[in-house]
Structures are given as C-alpha cells and as structure tokens.
Amino acid sequence: MPSVLPDGDPAPADGLLPASCAHDAEGRTMSFYVHIPFCTVRCGYCDFNTYTATELGSGSSQATYAATVSKEISFAREVMDRSGQPPREIETVFFGGGTPTLLPASDLVLVLDQIRKDFGLKPGAEITTEANPDSVTRQSLQELADGGFTRVSFGMQSAVPHVLKVLERTHDPKRVPQVVSWAREAGLDVSVDLIYGTPGESLEDWRTSIEAALSYEPDHISAYALIIEDGTKLAAQIRRDEVPNIDDDDHAEKYQMADELFAAAGFSWYEVSNWAKTPANACQHNIAYWKGGDWWGAGPGAHSHVGGLRWWNVKHPAAYQQRIDAGISPGHGREYPDAQAVQLERTMLLTRLSSGMEISELDATGRTKVAGLIADELIDAKAAFAGTLVLTQRGRLLADLVVRELLDF
C-alpha cells in the first residue's frame, strides 16, 4: 500500500502560511508539483502514493480529477495572497505520479492552464510530465506539446524483458524508441529513467539497458538504484526467498558502468543519479528542490515547501476530493524543520550536485574533515582548494558517508 504520511503539526483548514514564510521570497524560485495518483497496476517495488482502479473505491474519480486539482491550484493562489506572499511566476512544473498520462492529455493541459491563469508561467518555464511508454500516443504527445509542455520523462527502467517482469512493468521495451521518436516529433525534450540492481539482473543485462537508452539519443538520463521498501510486494518476495536480495557491491559496479558509458556518450552528471547532454537539459524542477526553492505540491499526498515551512496533503484521493469540494485545505500536517535538520538536508542535497557545496557553509568541525575526505578520494581536490566540495565518482557511491563525516553524526 502507499507510504505512510509523516508526523507533524495539524495543518490549518484555511491553509494560511505564517508571515515569516514571505521573508526574502522574491529571491527564491517558485515551482509547482502536480501529483497524479493513478496507475493501471501497482509495480512490486513501488511505495509511492498511487492507486489502481480497484484501490480507489468510491468518492474519487479519474474523470473529475483534473477539475479537482485545478480547484486546489486556485486555492493555492488565494492562500499565497492572503499570507502576504509576493507574486511570483512559476519557473518549473512537474506532473508526477503514478502515471500522469493515464489522464487524457487535455486534462493535463487543463491543469497547466489553471497554473498559468492563477500564477503565470515565467518565459521559458520548464513543464515536465512523467509517462509510461504504453500510456502515450503520437497524438497525445503532440497535444501536450501544443498545450505548453516542454519535456517528457519516460519510465523505461530496463530494456530486458525478464528484468521488467520482476519489476512488474507492463510495457514492451520495443515501444520505448517509438515513443521517444513521437516526443521528438512533437518538439518535446526527452528524459528516460532507468533502474539498476533488480533481483536477477546481470551486469550484461544492465549494459544492454544502458546501451539501448543511449541509442534512443535522449537529452537526459536518470539511473536509480533499486531500493526495497518495507510493505511492498517485492520486499515480501525477498523475505520469502522467492527472489534474491539486492547487493550493495552489485549496485556500485552498475553505477560505475553507467557513469562511464554515459560519459563516453557525451552525458555529464549533474546530480548523483542524473546525467544531461548539456547543462540546459538538466531537470530544472529537481534542481529547484535540491537548492531549496519554493514549490506548491497539488494532489493527494503531495508535499509543499514555502519559506522553510513544509506541509503535506491528505493521502487518499477520496479524502482529498472531499476537502477540496468543501473549500478547505487538503493539508494533513506541517512542520518547520529545526536548524540541525535544515543543515543536514542542505548538506545532503548540495553535495549530491556537481556544482557542489561551498566549504564555507560547513561549521568548524566539518571544515576539518575536508582534508581527510580528499585523502580518501571522496571529494575532488581541485574543487576543494577552490572552496567547493564536489564528490568524486567514489564519493558519489559513498555520499551518505561523506555527509556523516562532514556533520559528525
């Protein structure tokens, strides 16, 4: 089942933000995340807040979802105005899920139009939707492009049928180059997502997936290590010894293979799990997250962040729709992370970027650790001498260890 919401203080029914959230707001980027919680099937490894038709029950509907989430967008505009937030055009929008493209393209465009109407889009704004290869057509991709979308991220995951079977992905891998071609025809930038470390995936299987992805000539590639989440079907299968467990050494070897093959094909890493053909092809929406920008998350279970305040919506689509229809905030809980939590998160995120973290942001104890991390070949010596902490390839494999060393915990 979908993941459990975090603890926190109750979110107010009017959704108003503390006055402190408006401090220095003009200097922060503003983005929108739109959660589409629908999937045709639940993949065995998935712990996201998503629902199949049989899990939805009564009180929510895919057919009315675009209208419902559009109401939250208008509610967000009212909350921002009443909370003293200065007007800011939206710089990035990301439709995630779930499978956003299970909704008609016209519904996704309707939601984007609501953001444009209530907030405005900055010229050149990046507008992305995730998509499964079997959830789009040539016509739907063209409709998305005509409606203002600029980018599509396809959940390829693997090019090897037996790996896709373990992951319970439903698409035919032969369809991926076709949908990439359609997206290109429509004028959309293309990203493909890969997963490595699936039980039963050999190194040659992984090489096959990498080479296939590169042959499609995308603008951007994400490659994520498979994580086994408690409560998922795959976790239960591993516990029953039906499939082998994942292996850290296998993950490391596959990461190194991917990084080297991507680099040879002209891709540069800009975040531990992300590579782009050019800096302009990097996902600006995710960069806004990693650099501490503001965003409003619309939809059930979506998380938001404005001026240091974090909040999250009720999880189930039926509860979400009930609150929206009643004209009250769908927020379930919220929190202000303390200074230590903020520093931990900032260090974790910035050190994952190729642009790195300024060493001057570390406290005295953290700065004393830099020399040892250089000696251990975990951070780049040249960048460190210039005042920036940038991970080496080995450091990317041990990013959590680097953070623990820097923060001494």
TrEMBL record:
The record ties this protein, via PROSITE patterns, to: RADICAL_SAM
Ordered alphabetically, the record's keywords are: 4Fe-4S, Chaperone, Cytoplasm, Heme, Iron, Iron-sulfur, Metal-binding, S-adenosyl-L-methionine
GO CC, alphabetical: cytoplasm
**Listed Pfam families:** Radical_SAM (PF04055)
Q: Which residues form the Radical SAM core domain?
A: 24-268
Report the domain of life of the source organism: Bacteria
Does the keyword section mention Zinc-finger?
Answer: no
Query: Which compartment or compartments is the protein found in?
Result: Cytoplasm
Main location class: cytoplasm
Q: Which residue ranges run through the membrane?
A: none
**Which Gene3D superfamilies would you find in this protein's record?**
Aldolase class I
For this chain, the family text in UniProt reads: Belongs to the anaerobic coproporphyrinogen-III oxidase family. HemW subfamily.
PANTHER family to which the protein is assigned, alphabetical: COPROPORPHYRINIGEN III OXIDASE, RADICAL S-ADENOSYL METHIONINE DOMAIN-CONTAINING PROTEIN 1, MITOCHONDRIAL
> What's its job?
Probably acts as a heme chaperone, transferring heme to an unknown acceptor. Binds one molecule of heme per monomer, possibly covalently. Binds 1 [4Fe-4S] cluster. The cluster is coordinated with 3 cysteines and an exchangeable S-adenosyl-L-methionine.
Name this protein carries in UniProt: Heme chaperone HemW
Q: Which organism is it from?
A: Glutamicibacter ectropisis
What gene is it encoded by?
hemW
